[in-house]
Design brief:
Blueprint lengths: L7 H21 L3 H12 L5 H9 L7 H26 L27 H15 L3 E2 L5 E3 H4 L24 E3 L5 H9 L4 E10 L11 E11 L4 H16 L4 E8 L2 E10 L16 E10 L1 H6 L8 E7 L1 H9 L6 H4 L2 H7 L2
Parallel strand pairs: 1-4
Antiparallel strand pairs: 2-3, 4-5, 5-9, 6-7, 7-8, 8-9
Helix pairs in contact: 1-2, 1-4, 2-4, 3-4, 5-10
The structure holds 3,4-dihydroxyphenylalanine.
Amino acid sequence: MLTATMSVDDYKRLLAELTTSGQRAFEAARDLEELEHARIEYLGDQRGKLREFQIALGTLPKEARPDAGRQFNTAKSTLTEAHDRRRQDLAPNATRGDARPADLSMPPRRQWRGSKHPVTLVIEEIEGIFRELGFTVATGPEAETEWYNFGSLNFPPNHPAMDLHDTLYIGDDVLLRTHTSPVQTRTLQKYAPPIRVLIPGRVYRRDFFDPSHAPAFEQIEGLCVDEGISFVDLKATLTRFANRFFGRRPTRFRPSYFPFTEPSAEMDVQCGVCGGSGCGVCKQTGWVEILGSGMVHPAVLEAAGVDSERYTGWAFGMGPGRIAISRYGIPDIRILYDSDVRFLEQVAE
Ligand code: DAH
């Protein structure tokens, strides 16, 4: 029992003794029941030994109370901690460290799932359609020689496309391919007709990065070479493809020019936004251009060692990036290369 006339020094000494003996008592408890007895003895609200010190605080001289009060608080937290620690040790399935039970009502964090890039989605869908039509997928190198990229494709020497302003050269004769068409030559050299291949790949041009141009972008090339292939095959296959990919919308072919095809044609589908009446997306024409195509020029077949008297073929090239842009209503081509997840998530499948 504490006496009413106790000195401050006595108060502090007795409080220190109490702390030590309380810690020992908690340590000595062999089960939760013994621990609870010890808790009531030391920390109990009504009769606990510490409670007496709290009451005794009020009997100390006024100027000594703040200091003694601080020591009281320290003693209380030391004892409380010692008690809690022992309780954790004795608790069934005691776990070390943070023993708070899981809060099962807490909503889980939203899972972030990666997804395919819009251009990849378009390429895969196009590959799927052409696979059904009997095409296999081929690829070729991104660093090409002038001959594969231009010469074998019937570009005349000194064609402006070969100019340093348009093409990225990485050596005297080596350049970054400006289109996937050189893989036509590589395929024709490697395999004998009949050939039906789809060639997706990245190509490079010396363009400014602006809302409608990128210096590196994707292309998909198609090539079909066999005996007796005519423009009818080109039209039928590409129309079939367009109907599968864009839905049953009207298509049209316009005469065009490429050195590696003769005749050449550009293919349009009716604008899906305005239905052909003219809008901003189709620049008021009612049509959207989707690819370039044509009958493979005999000189291309011959350059690759294929007998152009016996075999004919058709080819096409398109830009899946541009198709992704119109399909997903993307306002600026640069978004495709920013890797900004906030945007890419919107088209994730
Ligand atoms: N290589 C052409 C380009 O990059 C696209 C192209 C047009 C490819 C017509 C073809 C074709 O195979 O027949 O613009």
